[in-house]
Design a protein that fits this description.
With about 250 residues, this protein is an all-alpha fold. It contains 12 helices and no strands.
Length: about 250
């Protein structure tokens, strides 16, 4: 139980801004960390639903409501995944060799393509969320868990681009079989919740997440030789945008 509690604390300390008691970042304490990673999605989804209800009570306009939806995931996570999206955008836009792209991922400076990607990403999010109603928001609350289950599976199943780094460290420390089972269970629960909320829209969101996962595997292997922490952040951001986009499109048919 002590190891599980430490793994829980490390997961939330690493991937969220939620205050956590201190835990030693040792291999034994990180063994089950990825099992708790999707629970951060539960927090994000819950806050999204609460904001949806509060916005109705406050009679907030569409713009204010949508800004809340866009900013909540960033505030809860501290933007750690967004950082991965922007670093990956710089690397992919460089059209350099694989080795050079990996170096760009490690560069702490934001390039022009990172800035452009950030602007386009937030505009796309704002536009899509402004078109979604309360039921769609409740449905997509489950998507923050689903995206993290896919990401957790990637850590155990996809090749690592580097022998060092965050993903390589967690993959080495993970009890892979336990993580895989946990991810599949949480994946089934989150997908089931989304489809129970609305079968058509839920199925569309799950399909969007799956297609993004397939793209993530092929792109990371071809461009970088495997995944890294930055690429994992890239996947989460694109996956969540894709789910919102597919729910919007499915609602039009």
């Amino acid at each position: 139980m002590r190891r599980l509690w430490n793994s829980f604390k490390i997961a939330f300390a690493m991937y969220s801004k939620i205050p956590m008691p201190r835990a030693d970042w040792e291999k034994e304490n990180m063994r089950y960390m990825m099992c708790f990673f999707p629970l951060i999605g539960v927090v994000i989804g819950a806050v999204m639903v609460l904001w949806s209800q509060a916005a109705c009570w406050l009679e907030a306009g569409t713009l204010l409501r949508s800004v809340g939806y866009v900013l909540i995931p960033v505030l809860v996570t501290g933007g750690i995944h967004l950082d991965g999206l922007l670093d990956t955008a710089d690397a992919l836009s460089s059209y350099q060799t694989r080795e050079r792209k990996l170096e760009i991922l490690k560069d702490s400076h934001a390039g022009a393509f990172a800035v452009i990607t950030a602007c386009c990403y937030f505009l796309a999010c704002l536009g899509i969320w402004s078109e979604l109603g309360e039921e769609q928001v409740r449905l997509l609350a489950g998507g923050y868990v689903l995206s993290r289950t896919f990401s957790g599976l990637a850590v155990t199943a996809f090749p690592n681009a580097k022998k060092s780094g965050t993903v390589a460290l967690f993959a080495d420390a993970a009890q892979k079989r336990c993580v895989e089972i946990t991810m599949y269970v949480l994946m089934a629960l989150s997908a089931g919740y989304m489809c129970f909320t609305n079968v058509k829209l839920g199925a569309a969101a799950v399909a969007g997440a799956w297609l993004t996962f397939v793209y993530y595997y092929r792109m990371s292997k071809k461009q970088f030789g495997g995944i890294t922490g930055d690429l994992a952040g890239f996947f989460l951001q694109i996956c969540e945008l894709a789910m919102a986009g597919t729910v919007y499109l499915a609602g039009k048919f």
